[in-house]
């Protein structure tokens, strides 16, 4: 949330423009400065800067949610709690599928099909909710240049032939999967830090990094 742009923190346009001149564009940039530094760059009083700090802090802080509210939301709509893998034995072990709103790590020896599994999850996430999907977009960060668009289409067409019954539907599905090739740890981290706005604008429901181990292995 600290990567949220200041223009989305409900600051005035004049204040945002002034801060931009000092390369202060995100909530993190703003909150890392002292009160005196903020008074200098904004040209505002101590009291006004304190109000700005409160506003920016509220804008980037996650909304508080009680355990009861979390349980209630999942009880009302159980399907939103998991993304089914459509592999019944695996879904049973995972108690419903890949849990939404959390981080899941997939590990195995080389050549066991982790990339194929990630590609399949990408297809599943774009499916309508009525078919067990998330009806959203996917961000796929490829660190090994292993992603194959041909394989993506092949999996979609073979697993769901009645739904993907035309080239137009397959093309629409591919438009929902946004691929980034990042080959270093630094570029992966930079990409992750810049995703917040894209997640909101593109209705992203799944983010895949394939894989973390490959960039770490190359650099460390």
From TrEMBL:
GO cellular component: Rad51B-Rad51C-Rad51D-XRCC2 complex; replication fork
InterPro entries according to UniProt: HHH_XRCC3_RAD51B, P-loop_NTPase, Rad51_C, RAD51B, RecA_ATP-bd
All copies of domain RecA family profile, residue ranges: 79-220
GO molecular function, one term: double-stranded DNA binding
Main location: nucleus
Matches recorded under Gene3D superfamilies: P-loop containing nucleotide triphosphate hydrolases
Pfam families per record: HHH_XRCC3_RpoA (PF26169), Rad51 (PF08423)
SUPFAM superfamilies found in the cross-reference section: P-loop containing nucleoside triphosphate hydrolases
GO biological process: double-strand break repair via homologous recombination
Keyword DNA-binding: yes
Signal peptide location: none
Highest taxon of the lineage: Eukaryota
Localization terms from the record: Nucleus
Keywords of this entry: DNA damage, DNA recombination, DNA-binding, Nucleus
Family (UniProt): Belongs to the RecA family. RAD51 subfamily.
The protein's name: RA51B protein
Organism of derivation: Prunella himalayana
């Amino acid at each position: 949330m600290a990567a949220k742009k200041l223009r989305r923190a409900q600051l005035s346009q004049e204040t945002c423009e002034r801060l931009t001149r000092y390369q202060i564009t995100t909530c993190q940039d703003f909150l890392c400065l002292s009160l005196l530094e903020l008074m200098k760059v904004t040209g505002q009083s101590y009291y006004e800067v304190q109000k700005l700090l409160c506003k920016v802090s509220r804008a980037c802080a996650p909304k508080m949610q009680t355990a009861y509210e979390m349980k209630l939301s999942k009880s009302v709509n159980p399907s939103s709690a998991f993304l089914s893998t459509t592999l019944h034995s695996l879904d049973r072990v995972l108690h419903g599928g890949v849990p939404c709103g959390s981080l899941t790590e997939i590990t195995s020896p080389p050549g066991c099909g982790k990339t194929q599994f990630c590609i399949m999850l990408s297809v599943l996430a774009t499916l309508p909710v009525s078919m067990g999907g998330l009806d959203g977009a996917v961000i796929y960060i490829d660190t090994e240049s292993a992603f194959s668009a041909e394989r993506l289409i092949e999996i979609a067409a073979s697993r769901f032939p009645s739904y993907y019954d035309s080239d137009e539907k397959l093309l629409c599905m591919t438009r929902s999967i946004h691929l980034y090739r990042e080959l270093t740890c630094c570029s992966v981290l930079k990409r992750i830090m810049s995703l917040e706005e894209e997640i909101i604008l593109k209705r992203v429901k799944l983010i895949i990094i394939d894989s973390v181990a490959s960039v770490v292995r190359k650099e460390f």
